[in-house]
Write a structure and sequence with these properties.
about 170 residues; Double Stranded RNA Binding Domain; 2 domains; 6 strands; about 40% helix; about 15% strand; globular
Length: about 170
């Protein structure tokens, strides 16, 4: 059974879904709770509202996400369960998880890291499908010229910019 949880952060309501194997989906702040529930239900089979008591992994993710949105560095070294991701997407996600808090890299840099030097667009497409932002910190990837590029979470580029500024501020 996949359970989902909604919780409040300093930036607004967020949500995530958890399977027995790990976190399967993360919805960043920017939507009303009803829309978060709807997105989680649409994306996942057999989803149930908050299984209680929440397992330790759910509690840990909530604590880390709340800390992140309050400007505190968070590791997010949590197990994920991504059965729908391709082998290439998983390779991109694993490489991106090594980009630390406050660091910013380009799509081209990430493409080189996964062994596809001319694959910046393919990397961008994989990141657009990232089901677990924060754990796979796709907001840390920008265009080669330093401009933001895309961000598929609610709030789009504005949320991406806010997250990058939040991390840069704490890094100083």
């Amino acid at each position: 059974m996949i359970c989902y949880y909604l919780f409040k952060t300093a930036k607004g309501e967020a949500g995530f879904a958890l399977s027995p194997a790990g976190i399967r989906r993360v919805i960043l702040p920017g939507l009303k709770p009803a829309l978060i529930r709807e997105q989680l239900a649409e994306a996942l089979d057999e989803v149930a509202s908050g299984c209680f008591p929440p397992p330790p992994l759910a509690q840990r993710f909530v604590e880390e996400a709340k800390a992140f949105f309050e400007g505190q560095p968070a590791a997010f070294d949590l197990p994920v369960d991504l059965p729908e991701a391709s082998a290439f997407e998983l390779k991109v996600y694993r490489a991106l998880q090594k980009v630390g808090y406050g660091q910013v890299r380009s799509y081209g840099w990430l493409a080189e890291k996964v062994g596809v030097p001319a694959g910046a667009r393919a990397v961008g497409a994989a990141l657009a499908k990232n089901p677990v932002p924060l754990i796979v910190p796709c907001h840390r990837i920008v265009r080669a010229d330093g401009s933001l590029g895309g961000f598929s979470a609610a709030g789009g580029a504005r949320l991406k910019q806010w997250m990058l500024k939040l991390e840069a501020k704490k890094k100083e």
